[in-house]
Specification:
The complex is a heterotrimer of chains A (517), B (326) and C (312). By secondary structure, chain A is of the alpha/beta class. Chain A is 32% helix and 25% strand. Chain A starts with 13 loop residues before the first strand and ends in a 6-residue tail after the last helix. Chain C is mostly helical. Helices cover 72% and strands 2% of the residues of chain C. Chain C contains 13 helices and two strands; from the N terminus they run ααααααββααααααα. Chain C is globular. Chain C starts with 7 loop residues before the first helix and ends in an 8-residue tail after the last helix. Classes of the chains: A alpha/beta (517), B mainly alpha (326), C mainly alpha (312).
């Protein structure tokens, strides 16, 4: 039983006692006591699988606890559905957006309690209310009648926040709600949250980004393995100490050493004036054998599009791509992964682009390399099992039975399965689209080690990451993108967080316009 | 005027269907020996409204991301029932009509309850309930026969004020009284939300069970209206499986032509009405162009294929192939 | 409860056992070899159609052109016998079905038109073509002796030839699904097409091949049906579409794709066949048959076909 260090003014708004949640044999939460109070921003930290998402889902009425009690302003409560929780003033913004893509912004914002006239929805009043809320979050340029599916991801997340505000929350929960926002929108959200806190709202904030926690939070709670470890005020622990609390062991912020090269390595991937209107312009870049080249810059400057263009997903790409000197033009992932080209892409969203969740680990890992495992007309299952077992060992994937569904694995292990799938193809060019997003610290370290090993074995690696530490720690060179062009290439000792950030913002400030997606 | 532009663009499928209908009907009338007479219009209207009502019935479950393969059979069932009980004194006729409509509601409720609370897939559920409804229809009318109140039938199948086909007026009334309030209600919008993203709808606190159930119940109601109208037109009830199957499949085609997405989340009944009118006009066009009867089914098939393939152009404009996959 | 007992295939076979028992209580010779073999013979036609239908459903699609492709198979095979050579009857009939399937595949894979609506349109076009064909000069609609032999006679151990054809087709389909790369790709696409695409699977090619197989299966069944009745006739296939889908689903295949085994489809086909035949033996009028048919399907699915509660 941990007591939160709450000041003596007033009782906590929300109190949870002895909360437990079990899914079959797995314990997601184990005897958790937790409390948060009004007028504070309370960060919840922990690795994937630590239980923070489960805790939030219980508070928001999405799942029911297996045991324990919950009190709202000292009244015992139990929410059977999200609607009930909302009625009690608890509003949650999840990582998976709760917006309906085919409906308008106004319809989405007022989805459950629209203004009515004669029992029917009052469209005009609804649009007005939506416009008000959009202005409050700084998105007055979004038209209430626009369909949500036509908005960028960043704008959609802002609409989600506007919708949450419209429900007049007493307790606002944000679960990784800023992961896709542009820098400008993030600043907007911080300002709003501070305002709401000063107005007396209780705010629970889940994020993996340390600097966000430092800027926003008054209180931090760390969870680990389904248990509430500690709650402390801001400034009490250093970042490294916090990470140690999260992973439960000593943490050394160490990246594998980068090789010192006398001469540039032989080029494996050469891009010359690659363009894809309107998002990519004249990209010229070389990745040599054994190099890890990073793509940096603010969100949405074309990094994702560049990787997709290389992998053959985009139509209408101009300019030239050469692999080991030979010009190629992949027009589909099938071509891109062929031995002649030998590319692999670790996609952005593992749940919708990288894995078939209900299918087994075996089926997922072998999907991209089935052709190599085929003898005659049939798949050689024994060879397949051997190679998969090797892969599981090499990547240290925690799984008991490779025929169990991949959905049962933790986030980090799921990402390892995606990587394993591509390692099976023995690709020589590996493209990674923000591979460590939402992955626990331990697995991240393993992945950095793996990338360096692959590079040392001769692969050419192009890594897009939104984590500056990663770019600094892993990459031999970093190309900063701005509005679809390479602004600058940093090499060697030039690669520092300061230089990356400065380069990313440099032209933006000089040109007078803020970078936006 | 941004509002108007957005409103129109978001309903482009519907407007396309309307334009297609006007074009085809124009060609039909232009080549019809008698031209646009009241009788020609009434015959066309009666046939069109019949399919339009079934297409309306199909639209509601489709909006929720489901499908109702039993609409044709509810249609037949209500036709057979009406041929028994919509006869006699005005009170009996009125009660008969209410009973027929109630049967449609009940049929929809059965399918909807199994889908919502049994958590079975709509395609296979309505396939099975369709068989059940057809069986009941057969019990009611093992052989074609029956009758219906002739005064009411004449009233419905002719014209108002000697100019406007009554069925068209009824269609407008039904749309105004049933669809518009539904579409503008919270529950109606919930149906679109469910079709768009059911998981997100749940997280948003949308009342999913109630909305889905209502969609299927109203679907049964509209199919019952169609069955009633059929009885007024044919003066008899017939448990014809081919007819039921044809109406079901045509209703799906009408829904697609009318711009409603088979995946759910967007579209509406008005588009489906015009989609139904387009399908009916295709048949009439064949008659008017004196196509040899042997060629008619082929022509109908090709035009149907072309009409439902209208949305395919999108594929060639997409520049990020990943967007092809839902 | 051990996992095997709740698998749909097991439950389907269990239900078959229950029905055989119920039938035997009604009539003594229900369990006789003659009767059972006859059931399997008639079920073979549905079985062949269901094999193709299952593959398409596993992809997450549906083939509504089955009714008239069956007819195409029947009519084109008898026509080929009349125009050219009886030996060409079966191959030509199947080839025509394959071609229709290819068209279906191209429409769905390249034009990205929802399969439900595209195959519906193709069904109408196929109907139009067949009407045109039969309206022409003295259509050849008589089945060849070979076709008759294949679908009616029994050669080996008194086992119907039609059953052997189903066995052959079924083994091929089961092998494809369970042991070949194509099978892996089919399940992958049915699970999540985007993931298959990004993993370098030729999703378009797989779709086209599968619709072609479905067309070929339907046409083959049509050839056999023509052999059974000694002639091809209009709307031969209308009675087979819904039972085929029902058989696939009752066998545990998810209608949305990505999950299901061929063994289950076999169980589903036998189940539907038995159900229809029991109702006929009981001399149940058509009305009662339809009601029981629908009720049984729903009852069985409520036991093992239920979806999960929506939570996110």
């Amino acid at each position: 039983m941990i007591d939160s260090p709450l000041p003596d003014d007033g009782a906590p708004l929300l109190r949870m006692r002895g909360i437990a949640k079990r899914y079959g044999g797995v314990t997601a939460l184990d005897g958790v006591d937790f409390a948060c109070r009004a007028g504070s921003i309370h960060a919840v930290l922990g690795e994937n699988g630590a239980g923070k998402s489960t805790l939030i889902k219980i508070i928001a009425g999405v799942v029911q606890p297996s045991a324990g009690e919950m009190f709202l302003a000292d009244h015992p409560v139990r929410f059977a559905t999200p609607a009930e929780a909302t009625r009690n003033g608890i509003v949650c913004i999840f990582q998976e957006l709760s917006l309906l893509p085919d409906l308008t912004v106004a319809d989405n914002i007022c989805i459950t309690d629209p203004p009515r006239r004669f029992g029917l929805i009052d469209g005009r009043a609804q649009r007005r209310r939506a416009a008000e809320l959009l202005a409050r979050v700084g998105c007055a340029d979004v038209h209430p009648m626009e369909l949500v599916k036509n908005l960028t991801l960043s704008r959609r997340q802002m609409v989600e926040i506007a919708k949450a505000l419209g429900r007049k929350p007493k307790l606002l929960i944000l679960d990784e709600a800023t992961s896709a926002l542009t820098a400008a929108d993030v600043a907007s959200v911080y300002a709003i949250l501070h305002r709401l806190r000063d107005d007396g709202l209780a705010i629970l904030y889940i994020s993996h980004r340390m600097h966000e926690i430092a800027e926003l939070a008054d209180l931090c709670s760390v969870f680990r393995n389904g248990r509430h470890i500690e709650t402390f005020a801001k400034g009490r622990h250093s970042d490294d100490e916090i990470v140690e609390l999260m992973i439960g062991r000593e943490y050394r912020h160490v990246f594998p050493p980068k090789p010192v090269r006398a001469a540039p390595p032989p080029p494996v991937l050469t891009l010359d004036r690659l363009s894809w209107a309107p998002r990519l312009h004249d990209i010229s870049l070389t990745v040599g054998s054994g190099e890890i080249v990073g793509l940096g810059g603010l969100d949405g400057q074309g990094q994702r599009e560049l990787l997709l263009a290389l992998f053959g997903v985009l139509r209408g790409v101009t300019g030239s791509i050469a692999v080991a000197g030979r010009p190629v033009r992949p027009t589909s992932p099938l071509q891109a992964k062929s031995p002649k080209i030998g590319m692999a892409l670790i996609p952005e969203d593992r749940k919708t682009e990288g894995l078939m969740l209900p299918m087994s680990v075996r089926d997922n890992i072998s999907l991209a390399s089935i052709a190599q495992l085929t003898r005659g007309l049939t798949v050689d299952r024994d060879a397949e099992t051997r190679r998969i077992d090797d892969m599981v060992r090499q990547l240290a994937i925690k799984v008991d039975d490779i025929d169990s569904p991949v959905a049962t694995l933790s986030g980090g292990n799921q990402q390892k399965v995606v990587i394993a799938k591509w390692l099976m193809t023995e690709a020589r060019i590996i493209l990674l689209n923000d591979p460590t997003r939402g992955i626990d610290v331990g697995t991240k370290q393993e992945m950095y080690q793996l990338l360096r090993e692959l590079a040392d074995a001769g692969a050419a690696i192009l890594l897009y990451s939104t984590d500056y530490d990663e770019l600094v720690g892993c990459c031999d060179r970093v190309a900063i993108l701005y509005q679809g062009r390479i602004l600058r290439e940093l090499r060697g000792t030039e690669i520092t967080e300061h230089n990356i950030v400065a380069s990313a913002l440099n032209l933006g400030l000089a040109g007078g316009t803020e970078a936006a997606a | 005027m941004i509002e108007l532009r957005l409103w129109v663009v978001q309903r482009s499928g519907m407007f396309l269907a309307i334009a297609l209908f006007i074009l085809m009907f124009g060609i039909y009338i232009g080549n019809h020996p008698a031209g646009l007479t009241v009788n020609v219009a009434t015959t066309a209207a009666n046939k069109g409204v019949l399919l339009a009502l079934v297409a309306m019935a199909q639209t509601l479950p489709v909006l929720t991301g489901g499908l109702d393969l039993s609409v044709g059979m509810v249609f037949i069932l209500c036709n057979c029932l009406a041929s028994h009980i919509v006869i006699g004194s005005p009170l009996q006729v009125a009660l008969g009509i209410i009973a027929v409509l109630a049967t449609g509601l009940a049929a929809g409720a059965v399918s909807g309850t199994i889908i919502v609370y049994g958590r079975l897939q709509p395609i296979i559920t309505t396939l099975a309930t369709g068989a059940i409804f057809y069986g009941i229809a057969l019990l009611l009318r093992p052989v074609p026969g029956g009758e219906i109140d002739t005064n009411l039938a004449d009233f419905v199948t002719y014209q108002l004020f000697d100019t406007v086909p009554t069925t068209l007026v009824l269609l407008v009334l039904v749309t105004a009284a049933v669809w518009l309030p539904f579409r503008l209600s919270v529950t109606g919008r919930a149906c679109l939300a469910i079709g768009s993203a059911e998981g997100a709808a749940f997280m948003s606190g949308v009342a999913i069970a109630r909305a889905k159930l209502l969609a299927y119940v109203l679907s049964g109601f509209l199919a019952a209206l169609a069955g009633l109208l059929l009885t007024f037109i044919t003066f008899s009830g017939e448990a014809s499986a081919p007819a039921g199957g044809t109406y079901t499949l045509n209703s799906i085609a009408a829904v697609v032509i009318g711009g409603t997405s088979l995946f759910g989340g967007s579209g509406g009944v008005i588009g489906s009405i015009f989609g139904a009118f387009v399908l009916r006009t295709i048949e009439d066009l064949l008659f008017v162009f004196d196509l040899p009867p042997l060629w008619q089914p082929l022509f109908q098939g090709i035009v149907l294929l072309a009409a439902v393939s209208l949305g395919a152009g999108r594929v060639f404009r997409l520049r990020n192939r990943l967007e092809l996959f839902g | 409860m051990p996992r095997i007992l709740v698998r749909p295939e097991f439950l389907a076979f269990a239900f078959i056992g229950v029905m055989l028992l119920a039938g035997s209580l009604y009539s003594a010779n229900f369990l006789s070899a003659t009767y059972l073999l006859q059931q399997l013979q008639v079920a073979s036609f549905l079985g062949i159609i269901a094999s193709g239908a299952m593959i398409v459903i596993l992809l997450g699609h549906i083939d509504l052109s089955i009714p008239w492709v069956v007819t195409v198979g029947g009519m084109m095979s008898t026509a080929a016998a009349g125009w050219w050579d009886p030996a060409l009857a079966l191959p030509f009939g199947v080839l025509c079905g394959l071609v229709v399937g290819l068209v279906n595949g191209i429409g769905v894979a390249f034009l990205r038109i929802p399969s439900m609506i595209f195959t519906l349109g193709i069904n109408a076009v196929a109907q139009g073509l067949m009407v045109l064909h039969t309206g022409g000069f003295a259509p050849q609609d008589k089945a060849t002796p070979f076709m008759h032999w294949l679908s009616v006679e029994r050669s080996l151990l008194g086992i119907p030839n039609a059953l052997f054809v189903w066995l052959l087709v079924g083994s091929a389909v089961a092998a494809i699904l369970g042991r070949t790369p194509l099978g892996r790709y089919i399940y992958a696409i049915g699970n999540r097409e985007a993931v298959a695409y990004l993993s370098g699977v030729d999703t378009r090619g797989v779709l086209i091949i599968c619709f072609a197989i479905s067309g070929a299966c339907s046409a083959l069944a049509g050839v056999l049906l023509a052999g059974y009745s000694d002639k091809a006739y209009q709307a031969m296939g209308d009675a087979y579409l819904l039972p085929a889908i029902a058989a696939v689903v009752l066998g545990g295949t998810n209608i949305l794709g990505g999950r299901g085994t061929y063994l289950g489809t076999v169980a589903g086909v036998i189940l539907i066949g038995l159900l229809q035949s029991i109702l006929s033996v009981m001399q149940m009028p058509e009305a009662g048959r339809q009601i029981i048919y629908g009720t049984v399907i729903i009852a069985m699915l409520l036991v093992y076909g239920r979806g999960s509660r929506v939570h996110s």
